[in-house]
């Protein structure tokens, strides 16, 4: 079921566009937005939360243009989950959770804490008295307080160690709410998202089933993201191409960093269907055979 839909959305600050012509569906199976810093992930998340209006295109919630939707109802249905550092250091954990509840429902705080695996006794603690994993669970409990239909998670495990990450991911995977996960961590998106979109320089360069994108990517940028993940007992990750190059202003934005670039890449590739996914690359067939991933 589609919860939110973007149709040809271009976003920017002032008149400067930073996200270009993005179309995607956020469904209840979990959707990932993958990309490095500056790729447009958080800007898209702000638009999906109703905090940024598109320069062009439409975002729909329940089939209705978000600009015409009941925003009070929308903000109960779509909740952000920020990183744990977003907690007010002056507020106790229980008060942070209760703040999201109507006064008559504040007795639900212990129930919400148990739902995310926290001892209700921790309600009296301030953030500095909690571990990183406990703080992140408080943030999740706060988002769940209004029984949302969709959670928008912006790098929810980036500040956590590996064992705590695993527990938080197990918690998120077991929730009934839909998920839009913003991350550069491919292991996390593989755990939580059925479908993923890969962004580079504000454009979708590849999208499709997450398992396919992680095991058989068709875009050189997706290959680079996958190969940058350290593997236990394996060789250290090695960057291919010019990782420091800025996006190209014309043609394929990735071409100045791409080890497979050819003269044809001076023309911008269209997003097209290929092997059950969408990909914007002139050499996608070559990459998909595995020759381009060596």
Give your account of this protein's structure.
With 294 residues, this protein is α/β, with parallel strands linked by helices. Helices cover 27% and strands 24% of the residues. The protein is built from ten helices and twelve strands. The chain has helices spanning 41-48, 71-77, 93-98, 109-115, 132-144, 162-173, 186-192, 210-215, 220-227, 284-288, and strands spanning 2-13, 16-27, 31-34, 56-61, 64-65, 78-81, 150-154, 178-183, 195-200, 203-209, 272-274, 277-279. Strands 6-7-8-3-9-10-12-11 form an eight-stranded mixed β-sheet, sandwiched between helices. Helix 5 (132-144) packs parallel to helix 6 (162-173). The longest helix is centred in the middle third of the chain and has 13 residues, at 132-144. The model has no long low-confidence stretch (mean pLDDT 89).
